[in-house]
Structure to design on (335 residues):
């Protein structure tokens, strides 16, 4: 049943996020052109990628319907036609479509979430290299400039977090953010050669690092001992912590304050308390009404679990709703 693990016939899964003008499409095409031969680009940006047709050799499929199923259909067709690389430009439009279908309701997300999961699975399971671009929220900062001993101030446009489902970057092998100087900063990587590095005008250099990494065969060493399967409660806390990107150090402090080392040493009610503590800590910066947030957690996570839904899915749905509520509140304040 088990065999030595090797890296063979693997494909890169790369996510590039950035605000408008940061060079996402150009960078994706530049990397792809040095990674393989035949490039298929799924264009949701009204044909904007075709402006680079004189610089790169690629085929396009323009999507006007951004339902996740349409993305999946385009990915499958590109695979069947023998393309080496699929560029999804951009994945953010699928997220906009999901938001519209969910309608800001928790029960709406219960129907939309499986569609999102199918799209992610289609990307992860693709026989092609996948490069997906994601829009980032745009904000302005006031930057101080020093010249001849005098200070001056000017506005600077920056991109913040991707406009996408929370934690989607964990689905990719490598994820990075592009700024307005076209510098790509790698924020998450399974490829050690590019971890925490930056690339100006990413293209050939980054593609070669990926090709070298994917070509290296790594075999696991024979296991002399049988690994212990993690306790259900330990695994539960780990899954929620990963979803929330909650600091491990804070969990250790909480466990120590309760006189234990692992969640499995607690009774179920205390583990429920730990999970809720992590979730409300995540939501705290996004909500001005802690009691409302706690009530919404009880109503939409605890109740969902009681009714038989996956806790991870219930928490993800709740996180999306909290983010959407925060976005609407900001829009109302801006009016």
């Amino acid at each position: 049943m088990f065999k030595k693990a090797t890296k063979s016939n693997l494909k890169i899964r790369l996510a590039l996020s950035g605000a408008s003008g940061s060079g996402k499409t150009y960078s994706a095409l530049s990397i792809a052109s040095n990674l393989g031969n035949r490039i298929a680009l799924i264009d949701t940006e009204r044909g904007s990628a075709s402006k680079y047709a004189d610089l790169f050799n690629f085929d396009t499929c323009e999507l006007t319907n951004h339902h996740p199923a349409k993305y999946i259909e385009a990915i499958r067709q590109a695979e069947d036609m023998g393309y080496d690389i699929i560029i999804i430009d951009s994945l953010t439009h699928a997220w906009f479509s999901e938001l519209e279908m969910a309608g800001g309701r928790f029960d709406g997300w219960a129907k939309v979430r499986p569609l999102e999961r199918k799209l992610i699975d289609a990307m992860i399971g693709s026989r092609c290299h996948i490069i997906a671009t994601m829009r980032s929220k745009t904000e302005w900062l006031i930057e101080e400039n020093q010249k001849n001993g005098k200070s001056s101030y000017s506005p600077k446009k920056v991109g913040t977090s991707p406009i996408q489902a929370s934690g989607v970057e964990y689905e990719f092998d490598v994820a990075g953010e592009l700024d307005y100087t076209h510098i790509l900063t790698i924020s998450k990587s399974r490829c050690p050669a590019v971890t925490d590095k930056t690339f100006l005008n990413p293209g050939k250099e980054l593609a070669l690092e990926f090709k070298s990494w994917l070509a290296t065969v790594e075999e696991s060493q024979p296991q002399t001992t049988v690994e212990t399967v993690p306790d259900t409660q330990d695994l539960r806390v780990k899954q929620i912590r990963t979803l929330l990107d909650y600091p491990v150090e804070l969990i250790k402090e909480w466990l120590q304050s309760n006189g234990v080392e692992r969640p499995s040493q607690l009774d179920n009610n205390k583990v429920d308390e730990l999970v809720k503590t992590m979730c409300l800590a995540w939501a705290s910066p996004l909500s001005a009404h802690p009691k409302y947030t706690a009530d919404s957690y009880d109503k939409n996570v605890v109740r969902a679990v009681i009714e038989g839904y996956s806790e991870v899915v219930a928490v993800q749905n709740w996180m999306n709703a909290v983010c959407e509520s925060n976005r609407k509140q900001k829009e109302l304040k801006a009016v």
Notes: Residues 217-229 have pLDDT under 50 and may be disordered. The first helix runs from residue 24 to 33.
